[in-house]
Amino acid sequence: MSGVPVSRSGRIQEGLLVAAALGLLVATWLFVTVEPAPDFETSLTAQFPLLFWLCFYGVLVVSIVVALLSAIDSSGYWRHAVALALGDYALFFFLPLARGYRLYGRGASDILVHIGDVKGILQTGTIAAGSWYPMQHTLVSELVLLGVPLQGAEYVVEFAFTAMYILSMGYLVRVATGRRETVVYGLVAATPLVFTIFQTTIIPSFLSLFLFPIVLAILEQYRRSNSHTYLLLFVVFGIGIVFFHPVTAGFLVVLILSTTAFGYVYEWLRGASVRKIRPTLAFVVAPATYLWYINFRETRTSIEQIVGTWLSGGSSPGQAVAEEAASAPLSMAELLVRFVELYGMVFVYLVVAGLFGLFVVSEVLRRRSRYPEAFATAQFGVGFGLAVAFLLVYLIEFEPIRVARYMIVMAVFLYGLLLARTTEWRPRRQYLAVAILGAGIVVAALLGAHGAYWPNEQLTDAEYEGSEFVLTEGDQTLPIRTYSISHKMEWYVRGSVDPNLWPPNYQTGLPRGFGYDAVNTTVGTRYNETYIATHRFDRVFYTDAYFTPAQRETLIPYRQSDLRWLNADPTAARVYDNGGYELWYVPEGSVS
């Protein structure tokens, strides 16, 4: 505003914002001028020049720093910082599109099934009777019908939900504290991509989770006001989550019941009355979840898997993860590096949230606590309990970030509340605390973006066209044996309503080197009538820098000598080759 003197901090913020804006312009120019991928590439991020990454990470760090400085001196520049961060992420989420990927996700990726379900909706105009995730699939279908290409719709959804998650976390912290100026702390706390690759792909269990901050804010507003408006909003979001993902719907029931229980416990510990929500809110979610999912084949299959694992007395998911890590051909130093790459950003948040949570517990015991902080700590504890349950008992999901996602959301909430609390401290103490917490956010942001794109996820046109050929022109009764293409690829090619989708044709599990040895000198001696498919992915995926030399040696599916052997094999006839996907036919009764 003209005539108002700008402080030294304000001038620094202005200078940083100008530099970040210029960096974003340079990154955008590099983004639009990058060449499409000519073939399968093991790493998406390695295809962009160093200058792009310097600009991208520079804009991200500057946005966090300016937002925190703005929060300290109330300059208002945090709005510009958040806008720059979202613009930076807009480029980041569309990197696969810039490189011309048909899809970011291949092999056994769940996204192949989700896009197949979208194709089914577009082909028939209706939701399939067995659709587990109708909300997500309908949303993507609507985008396609509105003119967004199917090849780019996934990136629109990924970015939109991440942006909504960031913005709603700011709103949640503002509602919890009752102070408008604290919104920036929630925004900054939610900026790092702590869910890594689960934010750069359309996984319904995470898309639905990104609605939790707004649901928490609505529940808190309803608890305080008992307003029918907030009740209606909760019903809308609650039913929406039911049709997004069954586990998230279960989390929502846990959230409602634990929030009610917390109200009574907090009231008892504090010795003062507090408003509580009614546990009957759970009946909005639980019956809808039961009625929608109970009759699906996938529901029965999942229940059978869980019960079967319990009865068999097999190892817990936590043990399986630990054994997998121990069996990996990695040294302790390499394991530590891999842990930091995969989970470092989460570790930062869990440590800070855990320490702050212990402090809040001590405050509760001394009857000096604040409801929002105590509530967030309790929910963090609930999330910890859920994560432990998923790791100790087989409940389908076992990937660490997946099973801890409830706890991670609450950790981000606690981080934002801790930042908001610093505004009440003496200036020197506040500056030190914000500097330390801000450094943690910067580290998490750098690690989160670094880990958000995994290697070897490119689906090429050659792989798709080869799969389309064998699935439409080949013998539909024959198996297609391959190293890395699963039945999910059929879902993507055919669509979910194709009558030939079941039983599966693609079968993984080819032996190393096609099974050639001193006894099996031809594939015909090992298999009955079948197809064998190979493609460029098999020959290069293990060369990515992500893998250590020891890992690469164990990952090689076949060598060039094995491929030459297959080419010369009299029991295998190559019937298709598009330069990136090869198909061999092994007739029935083949002999060497």
The secondary structure category is: mainly alpha
If you compute it from the alpha carbons, what radius of gyration comes out, rounded to the nearest whole angstrom?
Answer: 26 Å
Low-confidence stretches: none
Number of helices: 25
The helicity comes to 55-70%
Number of strands: 7
Mean pLDDT: 91
How does the major sheet shape up? 5 strands, mixed
Per DSSP, what share of the residues sits in E-state strands of 2 or more residues? under 5%
Instruction: Tell me the distance between the termini.
Output: 86 Å
Arrangement of strands in the largest sheet: 4-3-5-7-6
Q: What general outline do the C-alpha atoms trace? A: globular
Quickly list its features.
592 residues; mainly alpha; five-stranded mixed beta sheet; 25 helices; globular
Describe this structure in words.
The protein is mainly α and 592 residues long. The protein contains 25 helices and seven strands. It has a five-stranded mixed beta sheet. Strands 1-2 form a two-stranded antiparallel sheet. It has helices at 8-33, 50-73, 78-93, 95-98, 110-124, 134-145, 150-177, 183-189, 204-207, 212-225, 228-242, 246-270, 282-293, 297-312, 317-327, 332-365, 371-392, 400-403, 405-421, 427-450, 461-473, 487-494, 536-540, 549-555, 560-568, and strands at 103-104, 458-459, 480-482, 506-508, 530-535, 573-577, 581-586.
